[in-house]
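Structure first, sequence second, as always.
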């Protein structure tokens, strides 16, 4: 264990909890502060407004969680998580082409967000040198000599409450999209990161339904993605408790309604008929819940030439992605794994080089995920954002690829391996795959 005494993590959601697990082997004490009163059992909370929406773990995310918290996959399964072959047990409609089902061994896991977060929090809380303090707001940083020396804390949502200074050698901001780090840096006279934004205007509506084993022919679920000209999509996936969760999603102004007739009409408009079938056959278990996600954002901490020592940023406070692509928890887990690796290789866990190395490593992870999600969003002409040179040619190839994947299961497997962050996006452009695309694309037929 390093000599460093104390690390503070701001935010006890998934990114913060995983960061704390990475820090726990290298600091004598790690303290997480969260504004919410954290539930003793799985439950929704104010600081995670998206918790009622569909959540699933990418294959890579599940692998990394199990690496950070050994045995965690089995804990998820014991809690009711549904495990399935991503391509063999689900129907994927890409641009209304049904991706050809085939067994791949690529494992997908669905588990509701309250249960998943509670499982992670329970594991991290058992670490002997980690303390989770809820109902507490981090009001600002304390610095000296260009480094963090502590944080100022007070009772949450009580601006008049007295502040207390807590000493710390490292602070990790995992407070989500409402991060105040840019404001704090400006107040301290440090550069503020530039921000890339892609405004896709996503709206979700989710609702739980009963399930019986015969529905969807026993499959794990079905998913249909929006595409230019048809900015509607959705999913129906199994969840713990033998339930289906139906998600209806719209982009660039296509907003799913909340009334039952409107939801059913929206589902009927999709090429995948499984969502509407479940809605007609099953009993709703709750009221529909809406969630709006205006834009993806990447705060470029990795490019800052001058940094505040002892300050790191993780999760949505660094980058937040269109939730349609399900990348957020996987990227947060990969950032925590990178941090653990850097600390394990460091002579001094609080060394001044940690910030540069961490942001460089995390920036590469974000860039890979951003390439996949932002390029998909920017296919829509209505979406505002910076487009890369040659994007029209890449988009044209992508359209042919998705069509061809409905005929050639090898292309489908590679698509899902990239989407699950197992393979790099460049794999889609390998010479062998290009040849397969042009052989198969002309044989594809859209679902109707």
């Amino acid at each position: 264990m390093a000599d460093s005494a104390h690390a503070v993590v701001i935010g006890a959601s998934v990114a913060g909890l995983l960061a704390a697990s990475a820090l726990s082997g290298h600091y004598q004490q790690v303290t997480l502060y969260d504004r919410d009163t954290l539930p003793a059992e799985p439950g929704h909370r104010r600081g995670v407004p998206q918790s009622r929406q569909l959540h699933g773990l990418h294959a890579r995310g599940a692998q990394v969680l199990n690496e950070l918290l050994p045995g965690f996959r089995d804990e998820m399964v014991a809690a009711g998580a549904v495990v399935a072959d991503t391509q063999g047990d689900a129907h994927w409609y890409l641009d209304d082409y049904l991706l050809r089902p085939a067994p791949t061994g690529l494992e997908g896991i669905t588990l509701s967000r309250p249960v998943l977060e509670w499982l992670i929090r329970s594991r991290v809380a058992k670490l002997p040198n980690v303390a989770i303090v809820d109902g507490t707001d981090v009001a600002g940083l304390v610095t000296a000599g260009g480094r963090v020396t502590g944080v100022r804390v007070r009772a949450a949502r009580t601006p008049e409450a007295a502040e207390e200074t807590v000493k710390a050698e490292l602070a990790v901001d995992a407070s989500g999209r409402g991060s105040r780090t840019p404001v704090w840096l400006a107040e301290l006279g440090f550069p503020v990161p530039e921000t890339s934004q892609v405004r896709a205007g996503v709206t979700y509506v989710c609702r739980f339904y009963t399930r019986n084993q015969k529905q969807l022919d026993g499959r794990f679920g079905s998913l249909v993605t929006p595409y230019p000209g048809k900015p509607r999509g959705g999913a129906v996936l199994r969840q713990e408790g033998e339930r289906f969760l139906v998600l209806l999603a719209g982009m660039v102004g296509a907003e799913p309604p909340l009334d039952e007739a409107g939801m059913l009409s929206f589902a009927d408009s999709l090429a995948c008929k499984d969502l509407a079938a479940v809605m007609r056959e099953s009993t709703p278990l709750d009221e529909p819940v809406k969630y709006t996600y205006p834009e993806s954002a990447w705060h470029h901490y990795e490019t800052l030439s001058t940094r505040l020592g002892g300050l790191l940023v993780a999760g949505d406070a660094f980058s937040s992605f269109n939730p349609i692509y399900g990348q957020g928890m996987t990227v947060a887990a990969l950032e925590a794994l990178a941090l653990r690796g850097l600390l394990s290789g460091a002579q001094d866990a609080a060394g001044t080089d940690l910030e540069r190395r961490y942001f460089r490593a995390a920036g590469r992870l974000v860039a890979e995920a951003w390439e996949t999600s932002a390029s998909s969003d920017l296919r829509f002409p209505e979406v505002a954002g910076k487009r890369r040179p040659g994007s029209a040619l890449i988009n044209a190839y992508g359209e042919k690829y998705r069509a061809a994947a409905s005929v050639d299961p090898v292309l489908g497997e590679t698509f899902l391996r990239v989407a699950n962050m197992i393979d790099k996006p460049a794999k889609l452009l390998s010479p062998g795959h290009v040849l397969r695309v042009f052989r198969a694309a002309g044989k594809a037929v859209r679902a109707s």
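Margin note: The chain has a mean pLDDT of 94.
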